[in-house]
Amino acid sequence: MSNYGSAEKGTIESREDFKETPAGQYKYYAEELAASQKMLSKWHKKADKITKKFLGKPVGGDRDTNETFKLNLFNSNVTTLKSMLYGNTPKIDVSRRFNDQNDDVARVAGEMMSRMLNLDVQQNGQEVDCILQSALGDRLIEGLGCARARYDVETAEIDGEEQLVSEAAPVEYYHWGDVLWGWCRNWAEMPWLAFRSYMTKEEVAARFGDKYAEKVQLKQQKPLSSDDSPDDNDMNSLWKKAEIWEIWDKKKKKVCWISIGCDKVLDSKPDPLGLKDFFPSPPFLVANATTSLYIPTPDYSLAEDLYNQIDTLQERISIISEAVKVVGVYDASSESIKNMLNTGTDNQLIPVDNWALFGEKMGLKGQIDWMPLADIVNALDKLRELRSEAIGLLQQVTGMSDIMRGELGSQYEGVGQSEMKAKFGSVRVQALQDQFAKFATDLFQIKAEIISKHFSPQTIAQKSNMQFSPDREMIPQAVQLIKDYDKAQLRVDIRPESVAMVDYAQLKNERTEYITALSSFMQSAAPLMEADPGAKPFLLQLLQWGLAGFKGAGEIEGVMDKAIEAAQQQTKKGEDKEDPAMQEKQMEMQAEQQKQQGEMQKVQAKAQADMQIRQQDYELDINFAREQHNMKMQQSMADMQRSLAETESKLQADLLLEQVQAQTNLQQTQATMQGEMEKDIVEAELNLAAESEKTRNKIAEIRASAMTKITEGQAKIEETRQIQALKPLPKDNGGDSE
């Protein structure tokens, strides 16, 4: 039974069924939270078990309760991946959406935003590291990582006016069990998003008022969301706090705060941040999401059978390893056999009391028998082979192959082949690295949007600390551009290699390859630059294009920009300092050009005069043709008017004739219809008279027949009366009867 509402009792048909009152909206959101909790309950329970698997703790109802040796490869794999994906505090790059060279205002705006974001990361480095590491750990273990941005502003009343004291846009981590969302197939369809936080009674009163502080339910905060086993009760918080849900409703564009058990919405505000995508959180770090339903599937679930198989094999190996020891039985009558292992030392013989009897019993072999260690060791070796095979399958499924740990697959495998396999095997790791970098980028993009839309210009100028830069004259314009977020479209970017653990060997190889290629390029380009110094900037630009293909090339690209600019300036100065012979040739060329321009002007003048004459002739021809056309049009109009008049007269005559004929036909039709009507009336009257006569005759016949029947009936009655009168009366015998 859900603790959030009664979603299992029915479904919502229309949101209008819930009134727009605090109580009505509370009921609606309570139903939504209950449905979401029910939808995610299986994943929550699974995630709790996976967390305990990662920590090596026993899980209730699982075979992990056995006190046996475990091989926690899941912890090892997650730790390795986490170290590879995140090893440095992110370096945030803010650039213009379109890198136009002359758009200096946008360049300064990007630099100001970059300084603000990086300064916040440096000042709160440990907090940012904790947030990103926690979100990444949740993604790798439970399957979902979440973080969000917030806008905090502090004001104070100074000299009777409310003035700004400080502004901040901090980012904060949210536990995977403290986030709920509505039914959807992907992030784009997300209808609402809810964040759970815990507040003390005093905090509730300060935020929502004293009346709600008395109504909310207080309970202990738990480290896990759905496991209520007795072993976990000792880890509950000492404080009793209220469970507050902050619900971001995308359809209604508002934010509501509720506490389950309090029958009203605690607070409600229209879209407080005005973000482009509304939600204060970037798309979750979701593991193995599909379009069937937006629910994470932890990586552990995909390889759970292999992890369990490895644990089973390790348990058997541990048990059998304890059985690998020297154990046997001996003849109890031979005490010397017992002393052979207890008191025997090197190079010393043990005496036998009755050698003849000892020989009859086949000596030592006939009086002692050892446990068959060979069979046990063979079984142990087979189990180890099966475990190695299962670990190999696990590494293939999870992508954690031995190649990525720098080992050779076999003695016949070369280093180049191993590097090729390692690069191919790192594709999945690279995909995870890109996903995590995009999550961090989207998080700080939201932070930048909050700064742009809510920070005051004074705060932006102060936090960016650009007043001492060479571009300080453009600070007001840049701040104005930042405040216009839709126009600015500043692009926040966190490159994957800036947050990942640095592979120094790979970095060294890439730089060595680049230096080698650079040396070859310079050797080939040197003769061309000596022959034509003006080609130097273009060759450097070609070199920069090749440089852009290397990871981490952003730093050296700035050096290349300066080198290209210097080469362009040097080429320009070289053009200004040409030798006298070249200048004389240029003067001769200019004189020749002027002469040719003069000849060209004469030709153009003559051509222009001829063109004017031709234009005049053309205009005269056009005027003559226009007059002839007008005369023809007038004659055609006159002919058309005469034809139209004749046609109109003919139509009028035909119309009068048709009217006379129609009137005559109408009179004839009326006369015919009137005659027919009179004829029908006479026939109807005759038929009516005949029918009346027949009816009168029929009535007379019926009347005569009735009178005849009445007369006959009266005669029969009279005859019966007479017969009765003639009959004798019965005698009176005093009441006796025969």
Protein described:
- The model is unreliable at 1-8, 402-418 and 734-738 (pLDDT under 50).
- The chain has helices at 22-55, 73-85, 104-123, 125-141, 201-208, 210-213, 299-302, 304-323, 335-342, 355-360, 363-367, 373-398, 415-425, 427-454, 457-464, 475-483, 485-488, 496-499, 504-531, 536-547, 554-576, 580-726, and strands spanning 92-95, 144-149, 152-158, 161-168, 171-174, 179-181, 192-199, 218-220, 240-249, 254-258, 267-270, 285-286, 328-330, 368-370, 491-494.
- Helix 3 (104-123) packs across helix 4 and helix 3 (104-123) packs across helix 15.
- Helices cover 59% and strands 10% of the residues.
- It is built from 22 helices and 15 strands.
- The chain has 738 residues and is of the alpha+beta class.
- Strands 6, 7, 8, 9, 10 and 11 form a six-stranded antiparallel sheet that branches. Strands 5-2-12 form a three-stranded antiparallel sheet, with helices on one face.
- It is flat, with a radius of gyration of 54 Å.
- It has a domain at 503-576.
Key terms for this structure?
disordered C terminus; six-stranded antiparallel sheet; 59% helix; 15 strands; 22 helices; alpha+beta; 738 residues
Distance between the terminal alpha carbons, to the nearest Å?
101 Å
Helix content: 55-70%
Total number of β-strand segments? 15
Instruction: Supply the number of helical segments.
Output: 22
**What proportion of the residues form beta strands (DSSP E)?**
5-15%
Radius of gyration: 54 Å
Major sheet details: 6 strands, antiparallel
Average pLDDT score: 77
Structural class of the secondary elements?
A: alpha+beta
Poorly predicted regions: 1-8, 402-418, 734-738
Tell me, briefly, the overall form: flat
What kind of oligomer do you see? single chain
